[in-house]
Amino acid sequence: MPSSNPRGERSATQNQGVVSSLQALNRPVARGITPIATDGVELTIDVTPSLPCLEGHFEHFPVVPGVVQLDWVAHYASLLLHIDWPVLRVDRLKFTSPIQPNNTVVIRLIFNRDKQWLDFQFFCADRSYSKGRVVYESPSD
């Protein structure tokens, strides 16, 4: 069925369906939450083999999908830094190493309120897994 949108963008209903699907995913419980900078936090998560996002992605080499990592960023930014504005885009996104079951991962979130962006990084002592910048829509005055 051809899209009525010439640019191929999703409708608000389609976007809500994607959001609902992501919310159904279990998120790891954050532990070791440490404030950093003025508007930042580091938290540690354990990637357990029972996370639903690992099922079928991939059978013999399970990894946390990139879209799930972005969901975790948005979730913890909202929960811990109280950032609830709509996302405009994700910039500087790099996935450098797969996150697998039984990994312990630190997520660093640093929010720049003046520029309305959130820098994030997933890492451990000897490896960077991913990083990027979430740019938010400015809140209404």
TrEMBL record:
InterPro entries assigned to the protein according to its UniProt record, in alphabetical order: ApeI-like (IPR054545), HotDog_dom_sf (IPR029069)
TM stretches of this protein: none
Domain ApeI dehydratase-like per the UniProt entry, residue ranges: 39-133
Gene3D superfamilies: Hotdog Thioesterase
Descriptive protein name: ApeI dehydratase-like domain-containing protein
